[in-house]
Amino acid sequence: MDFSLLAVAGCFALGLVIGMPVAFVLIMSSLVGIFILRGEAVALTALTTMPYAKSSDLSLAVIPLFILMGYLASAAGISEYAYRMAYRWVGHLKGGLAVATVFACAAFAATSGSSVATSATLGKIAMAEMKRFRYDDAISAGTIASAGLLGIMIPPSIMMIVYGIVTQTNIALLFLAGILPGILTAIVFAIGLYLLAWWKPHLMPTSAERFSWSERFSSLRDSWAIWVLFTVIIGGIYTGIFTATESAAVGAIVALLLMFYYRKANLRTILSGSREAAGTCAMIFLILIGAGLFSQYVALAGLATDFARFLTGLELSPYAILFLILLAYIPLGMFLEPISMCLITLPIVFPAVMALGFDPIWFGVIIVKICEISNITPPLGLNVFVIRGINKDIPVEKVFKGVSIFVVMELLILLVLVMFPSISLFIPQLAN
Predict the structure, then answer these.
(1) What DSSP string describes 356-392?
(2) Is residue 25 part of a domain?
């Protein structure tokens, strides 16, 4: 077993160094491990059966449906209404444009499911406004990159779906568990930006624009599409009308109808959204196939059992052991994108965490929060490079500088969520 583990680790490291896609690195290294442990026949059987086993699972239909819903909602122009609503309510405050961006991302996250999509969609709108009011480029880019993280916490969340599939945890309850942590994150970000604007007002000049109460309330009315989508998805799940998969299908249909309502629907837009959703899904499914093979290797090698036995044998409290596990995720997140990181580690880590007596729903929220942090930490930082891609005049190091304050806030929020599990579990417990 020791030799197989060294061989798998060596193949994995080599694949990453030479630039292979993570999905193929997982497939290659897992097959090497299975071959060493059980021989050629078992390895070939795993290679021929795993792709069908993973791609034919009906529960996975929730992934392409929610991804498609996010693309269609974005094409319908919902992000513009979200930003307009947030700006009219908080744009006059110190740091108001940045605060509005945070709340707009929180609203759009309820229709997106992806941090990258949320940052990219709102980034085009918010950056232009912040440039108009002469906001510091680092703060502007850092705010958009970090506020987009709400896309993987506030439901529907693709990361929650991936976690639920890998760990066999109820996805509907995971969605409900992400609501309060998502709101908490948005509030902490907003307070942090407000205080920064007080401390260094030259970084975020205050907007002179003011809106009447009637204009503010009218922006809520204009943003009705966001509330409709969120209510259909989360309300349907909470009341038991829909399963998570059914809510994804209904959400995609509602998003398509909204495109027709806003007169944004045409064959080119629909085909473009479908093509982008298909590309994203293909990437995720390839990683899932690789993760399935890796899970099979982990089971054959007994790694999960050995790791759980090792952790429970330590003379430390469960929370001290959890701290060590989370500490290990920080450097991993610097070099692996979140879905890959979770699919590689959860087959080993999850059984150990359950053996320590932690709640699987709560741990899902914690893992998603870790994924948020990894999306803005160097050198990978997917959200950072998304913002750099749509604002090529801002150096990538300046974007990383801008997100640094949000990394600190994210770590504080993570600490609060670890110390007070009831924040994550309150709504799921009501649903039960």
Answers:
(1) TT--HHHHHHHHHHHHHHHTTSTTT-HHHHHHHHH-T
(2) no
Residue 73 lies in a domain: yes
- CA 362-119-88 angle, to 5 degrees, is 100
Cβ neighbors of 366 (< 8 A, separation 6 or more) are 326, 414, 417, 418, 424
Residue 385 lies in a domain: yes
- The whole domain housing 380 covers 57-265+302-431
> For residue 19, is it left (φ>0), alpha (ψ between -120 and 50) or beta?
left
Q: Where are the beta strands (DSSP E) in 170-254?
A: none
DSSP code of residue 152:
G
Q: What is the number of structural domains in the chain?
A: 1
Query: Can you give the length of the chain in residues?
Result: 432
Give the CA distances from residue 110 to residues 148, 380, 427, in Å, rounded to whole numbers and listed in that order.
12, 25, 16
Distances (CA, A) of 54 to 28, 51, 166, 295: 17, 5, 11, 12
Please check whether residue 415 lies inside any domain of the structure.
yes
Backbone angles phi, psi at 31, to 5 degrees: -65, -35
Residuewise pLDDT in 10s, the chain (432 residues): 568 888 888 898 888 788 788 788 889 999 999 999 988 898 999 888 888 877 777 777 888 888 888 888 888 888 888 988 998 999 888 889 999 999 999 998 888 878 878 888 888 788 888 888 889 999 999 999 999 999 999 998 889 998 998 898 999 999 999 999 999 999 999 999 999 999 998 999 887 778 888 988 888 888 888 888 888 888 888 888 888 888 888 988 998 999 999 888 888 888 887 888 888 788 888 888 888 888 888 888 887 777 777 877 777 888 998 998 888 887 777 777 788 888 888 888 998 899 889 999 999 999 999 988 988 888 778 788 888 877 778 888 898 999 999 999 999 999 999 999 999 999 999 876
**Residue 304 and residue 351 in contact, taking contact as beta carbons nearer than 8 Å:** yes
| Consecutive H or E run containing 110 | helix 96-112
